[in-house]
């Protein structure tokens, strides 16, 4: 752990220092100083009254992102720093590098950007700042405790190229009404993958159009590679080895894991294939339809579930495997752009993400707290988002999470694991196609890694 203290704002710290110096200067006369040498209340009040107000020119910082759900947090930031306004620049399906280039060409460069993938390419093109010097002098980062390895997936060649602006956890969504209908009790939080499969079978009634699992790629994208870690078959998500240099997707144990999930479709019948789902009107593709027992969910599904679900739902942590019970989490990378004309102000937005105010707001949206803090952990019990739900599972998902790798893995965008797995699990493709595809990528990533030296 990186041991730190409590959060203080950039300008708040500067103002506090100014007040402290003024107070000390006033106490040198001796008449209004306390015996300990500290300024008396009257002298402090006088210093506060006479301290000059810091003037700032208005600044608008442009943030490239694909989500418009942060408006409330922009307002909270503006309340803290009234001279700074955050303007979201929507992605609208365009490549982020293209947006950065067009804004610079127009003379209105962006200041911050979310990163979708391949953070190395942004660094190679000189688009992002190394955040290390900013972090080292920033009161916020010096005053909080961050999880072990917090920057690991966003650092490259000793540079911190991004910070996680949000920690998106995953859970198993549970249709409690469907479970009750089939006489199945809610499992405990230490349930196993065998429990998961058995319950999925019990919830399946094709005649009623009911199935154990929602037909969604997230089961192979999120759950399957987590199971590989839980059973000791892989060190990292997406079937990566310990140092993220090679995929172990083509090893016998992992391929057996793939067969295990495929059996839900082709043997158990508790999850529909793509073709079967389409033939039945795609009802089982959406958990909110109430026809499936389990789905993979993250913060993005919660507003719709809370507003529109017609059944009682809850969450469970990912199941326990043979050696551990890991969860799955995504860090959303946020980078400071080299072309920014307002780098100090833009970094204040990055810094603000780790204040307790922003962290609590994110918990209220269903995200994890990124800061290790007892008050934030206790806040899960208070957050309106989780009232009446399995809060212990939410906390477990945070504590047990493995972080999705990728943005600093060479040639990551060429790693075709996702399409292969969809073809096999939901389309019935030959599982052996995994072997040559994995061998090809393992060779390719080493080649690119060597080129980047």
TrEMBL record:
Segments carrying the region annotation (Disordered) are 30-51
Xref: Gene3D superfamilies: Periplasmic binding protein-like II
User: What InterPro entries does its record include?
Assistant: Bact_solute-bd_prot1, SBP
Cleavable signal peptide: 1-25
Which Pfam family is an annotated match for this chain, by its short name? Answer: SBP_bac_1
Q: Where is the composition biased (Low complexity)?
A: 33-51
Q: Which UniProt keywords apply?
A: Signal
Q: What is this protein called?
A: Extracellular solute-binding protein
Q: Which organism is it from?
A: Cohnella nanjingensis
């Amino acid at each position: 752990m990186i041991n730190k203290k409590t959060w203080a704002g950039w300008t708040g710290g500067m103002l506090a220092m100014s007040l402290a110096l003024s107070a000390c200067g006033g106490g040198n006369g001796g008449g209004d100083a306390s015996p300990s040498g500290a300024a008396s209340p009257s002298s402090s009040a006088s210093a506060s009254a006479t301290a000059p107000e810091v003037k700032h020119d208005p600044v608008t910082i442009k943030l490239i992102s694909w989500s418009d759900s942060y408006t409330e947090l922009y307002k909270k930031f503006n309340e803290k720093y009234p001279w700074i306004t955050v303007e979201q620049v929507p992605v609208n399906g365009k490549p982020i590098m293209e947006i950065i280039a067009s804004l610079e060409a127009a003379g209105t460069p962006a200041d911050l950007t979310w990163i979708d993938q391949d953070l190395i390419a942004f660094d190679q093109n000189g688009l992002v700042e190394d955040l290390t010097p900013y972090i080292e002098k920033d009161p916020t980062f010096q005053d909080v405790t961050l999880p072990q390895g917090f920057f690991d997936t966003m650092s490259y060649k000793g540079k911190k190229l991004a910070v996680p602006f949000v920690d998106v956890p995953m859970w198993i969504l549970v249709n409690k009404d469907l479970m009750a209908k089939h006489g199945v009790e809610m499992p405990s939080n230490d349930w196993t993958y065998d429990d998961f499969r058995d319950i999925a079978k019990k919830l399946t009634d094709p005649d009623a159009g009911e199935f154990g699992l929602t037909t969604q790629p997230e089961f192979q994208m999120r759950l399957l590679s987590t199971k590989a870690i839980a059973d000791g078959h892989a060190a990292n998500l997406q079937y990566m080895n310990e140092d993220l240099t090679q995929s172990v997707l083509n090893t016998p144990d992992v391929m057996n894991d793939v067969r295990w999930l495929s059996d839900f479709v082709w043997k158990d019948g508790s999850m529909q294939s793509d073709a079967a789902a389409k033939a039945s009107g795609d009802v089982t593709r959406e958990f909110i339809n109430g026809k499936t027992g389990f789905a993979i969910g993250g913060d993005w599904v919660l507003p719709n579930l809370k507003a529109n679900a017609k059944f009682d739902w809850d969450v469970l942590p990912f199941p326990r495997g043979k050696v551990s019970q890991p969860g799955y989490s995504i860090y959303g990378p946020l980078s400071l752009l080299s072309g920014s004309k307002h780098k100090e102000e833009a970094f204040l937005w990055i810094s603000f993400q780790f204040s307790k105010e922003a962290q609590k707001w994110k918990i209220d949206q269903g995200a994890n707290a990124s800061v290790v803090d007892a008050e934030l952990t206790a806040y899960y019990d208070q957050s309106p988002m989780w009232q009446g739900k399995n809060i212990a599972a939410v906390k477990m998902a945070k504590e047990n999470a493995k972080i999705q790798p990728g943005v600093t893995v060479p040639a990551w965008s060429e790693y075709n694991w996702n399409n292969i797995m969809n073809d096999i699990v939901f389309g019935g493709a030959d599982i052996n196609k995994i072997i040559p595809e994995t061998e090809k990528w393992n060779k390719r990533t080493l080649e690119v890694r060597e080129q980047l030296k």
